[in-house]
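Hi L.,

You mentioned the student needs an example of a multi-chain input paired with its predicted structure. This one should do, with 428 residues in total across all chains.
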Amino acid sequence: MFRTRVHNLFVSSDGYAAGDRVTLEQPIGEAGALFSKFDGRVIHGIRGIDDPVTVDQALFSMWGQGIGAEIMGRRKFGPQSGEWLDDGWRGWWGDEPPFRTPVFVLTHFPREAIEFANGTSFHFVDASPGEALRLAGAAADGLDVRIGGGPSTVSAFLQADLVDFLHLAITPIVLGTGVRIWDDLAGLEDRFSVESISTASGLTHQLWNRKSRQ
Amino acid sequence: MFRTRVHNLFVSSDGYAAGDRVTLEQPIGEAGALFSKFDGRVIHGIRGIDDPVTVDQALFSMWGQGIGAEIMGRRKFGPQSGEWLDDGWRGWWGDEPPFRTPVFVLTHFPREAIEFANGTSFHFVDASPGEALRLAGAAADGLDVRIGGGPSTVSAFLQADLVDFLHLAITPIVLGTGVRIWDDLAGLEDRFSVESISTASGLTHQLWNRKSRQ
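Structure written out for the whole complex:
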């Protein structure tokens, strides 16, 4: 049985996990401070990062372990909304998207899939969280499925009780604005066991494991 | 430039990291309690372990990341000593040794290499730590080299200042006997930056990063 996993979700002290406005210039909106301690190379393992190897990085490096597919919201794929334009957009990541698996992009405007040589393919589906998870689970071929964000997508999967594992990195900053992660999730902790540790960087990591799987 | 890394080295409160006597029945001597919280499947990533996914397991899962070769002491390969007997011994691990890379076994009695279909090969070398590291570094082909133990081998590489990264799991038990890890290493901390965290299981993880690499 596969797990549905969320990794490296940075959340501010006031509960924001992305900026309000996503533009070509600001892929994560005005919330860049959330990720100031994140070296993105670590998602493929600690080999690729600079010294020192920290507890933060060890935890971030789980991102790619045993993952066979990702589900993401449309805003993670690009800044556009509405009907797709014939603009050649193939995502933020150039010729080497880091996913290396099938990726299911949730959108009300399905379109043809986009494939890359490194194993990444984007599939555009108008689907509920449950339907998307069935598609991704089949594509993952026995491996786990990552819910890749943004925060609204993670929140929707949490509300549908479809997340087995959630790694949050609580960042001690106050954003004041952005995309909220905790709306409509009161009592979420009842469904999970939660382990928390704080590290030398000031981050607090929370590992949420869904109880019904244990 | 590659790192020389030690992972998942369990150490008792009184500084022992293995049992005294290694036999066919007790591959780790009388020190089994050191590993009572360790699910060995995690070395290939969190996908393979049971729920919940804990901080302990996230840290243990670094073991295989970006590793291209291992160096181990002879006692990790088998309980024999002296001249090799023609007994068909191919290590403790059956047909699927977990290493999946070249492994250099330090011994005063070199012999022919042993190869497995899963990418593991054992090479028996009579070499100093520095010589062994040159061989392993070349075999690792741009990836990192793991010093796989046992404790005497780790200690020898630490004394030679050839370890870049060391992950210790301090286990709150008192063994009273076994193979000591800290002998002849007084002041070791001067050469490293050390990050410590304790987890819900009672383990304390220490990540030692060699300063001269930073």
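You could point out the following to them. Chain A has a mean pLDDT of 94. The interface with chain B takes residues 3, 45-48, 51-55, 58-59, 61-62, 65-67, 143-144, 164-165, 193, 195, 197-200, 205, 207, 209-210, 213-214 of chain A (CB under 8 Å).

Best wishes,
N.
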